[in-house]
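ok trying again, last paste got cut off:
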Amino acid sequence: DQGVISGALRGIDDSFHVSTTTTEIITSFVTLGALVGALVAGVMADRIGRRPTLLFAGGLFAVGALVEGIAPGTSVLVIGRLVVGFAVGVASVAAPLYAAEMAPSRLRGRYVSTYQLGITFGIFVAYLVDELMASSDWRWMLGVSAVVGIALIVAVLPLPDTPRWYLKAGRRDDARAALDKVDEGDDVDAAPAELEASLAQDANEA
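nice, full thing came through this time. structure:
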């Protein structure tokens, strides 16, 4: 969504004959939506959990992309861009947070950095899509990212939430079960106590 718009703008202009200002709004409103999404994502992830927040982001990706793809005019297109941008902001907070809290400690850095690599690779793929598709196919360029949003939902659905969030919610048994999946064979009985001590330390520092 962030990268493909550069190739879609010509087709959008052919369809709607947009002004320079409208073109700037269509291009930049993903970033504006991401700003708002990032601001609320931390609170959302703490209140409802990391996993539901990721599912919410995936749903927003799919809905926003479909709105972009079927937009009858620039106003609806801008709304779709805002929804997608909001999803970008939510995911940019929730995804690395989930990776950091869920990955085994020995692999944590690799998981978080892979997320950043995924963003860069996704933008690269978007530019390839721009090259392969004619600008007249701008609806497909923008709408096809709904598939990726649905893929995110499918991937996250079978996963548990993070042990750290379960403990914050007072769900110690769920935290232990999640830890058992992540660090199978480690001392999963001692780990919740260590996490609780860490949470208490965070609360004292706050």
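cool. The chain has ten helices and no strands. Residues 20-48 form the longest helix (29 residues).
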